[in-house]
Amino acid sequence: MNRKEQKSQIGWAAPAIIAVLLFPFVFLLMLSLGRRWAYPALLPGAWTLANWQAVWSMQAGLGESLFLSLALSLSITTVSTFGSFWVSKQVAYHRYRHRWLVLAYLPYVFAPVILAACLQYFFIRTGLSGKLEGVALAQFFITLPYGIIFFTSFWTERLLALEQLIATLGGNSWQAYTKVLLPVAKGPILTCFFQLFLISWFEYGLTALIGVGKVQTLTLKVFQYVNEANIFFAALASCLLVLPPIVLLWLNKRYVFSKVI
Asked: What is the pTM (predicted TM-score) of this model?
């Protein structure tokens, strides 16, 4: 096979791979616009925007779940990102660094559902079960340790030397963070923010058990419609569920990976 034939095969393969990757999203969008899809019809019997208009209706509650999920995930991600950034520094330079890292890995020994079952007693006793603040606190058990693990490798001897140089020149800790450490860590912080957002956004086990079904995030809505065999609203909720990660993925590629490359 010559080079020209190889290029021709690659040229055909690329669109095919893209089509396969995009098919699930196109299929979900098609389902969200459909009505009355009965066997053996290849396509839904009717096309309408009524499903999307129901996003803002109080009956479906999708709009409320969307804003609740966004507020919950963004707040948890912001606190976890900057909190783990500071804590990871203390862990990285500690004499018992490896012991602390082992503790950070402990929440991932169990599945989220098992972790939630282990923690549920304490949330019930403190009155946080079935409340938004309880779900937020529960998600910190998996987002904060992940951020600590992520940032631990960021703290090197070079950064420690930079901090010592700033202190020698008369700078304080606030100036070290705002003028040097945060600008240097801009790329890792954005990457960690994106990954923590995905963890919080798609989290189901902790939210379902600690929230006992009262905290209706968008992820819970998807499973609810699937269990009800409501394929059109399940597709609509799935479209809303993948939209913010796609936007964040584009922002991450636009402002992080492009500069790294």
From this structure: 0.84
